[in-house]
Amino acid sequence: NLTVKIILKYDIPIQEFMEELKMAMVKEAKRQNPEYTMVQLACRTGIDRRYIGQYLASESFPVKPPKAELVLEEVHRICVRNNSKYINKTGPFQTFESVCNTLASGCLTHNAVATELLRQGNIIDRGKQYELVTQIYTPKQHDIVQQFKLLTTELTRMNDTVLYNFDTADKNQRQCQRNIYSTQVDPKHFPEIKVEMSKILNKTLANVDKILSKYEEDVPIGTYPAFGISAFMFGYQNKDKDK
Hints:
By secondary structure, the protein is mainly alpha-helical. Among the domains are: 56 residues; 66 residues, Orthogonal Bundle (Arc Repressor Mutant, subunit A), CATH 1.10.10; 34 residues. A 3-stranded antiparallel beta sheet has the order 1-3-2. Helix 2 crosses helix 3, helix 5 crosses helix 6 and helix 6 crosses helix 7.
């Protein structure tokens, strides 16, 4: 669900995402076991063995551009030929509809493609025509690199915690994500409990922060596996209290 939200928020082409995911899986499987052959990597990842070598040797994998991008490029060519930044919406020749029928026939309607390009800000609706704003398909890329760096750091920390918990599930001394809870406390006492716990947690977290700061090195965030404690305060509101 988190991945889907990120893909939609930043308009990441699904084909590109899937290819990057497959490439990452193959390389990680090879890193975990350098002795794996192509066939073994295919079995381990479930990816067609014909592509394993390409994934291992490449930093990126060529993918087909989105239909909307192909349509936008053709609209740009038509506008250049006609020395205009406008294109008619409908009609059989050199119109937005005719371009979509040629490049996206059978899978998308011209209205659907137009809706996407309008949302991206690549074209403007001018009644019977569309105005071309940009010749380049421009998904929302603002701050995406920085966003993904932060996301990667947080996911790495979470991943390390989950793997640690799995690896130490049968051990007596677990130091990570230990929970203390009760199902025998009346929710009406939650506000009082929060006040009392906050006094303890605030002091404890402040002391932990001081200890960690003492040992931190001047290296980029995410250089080492995450280490520390995590504390969450959960509340509960009785929806039936006014009934």
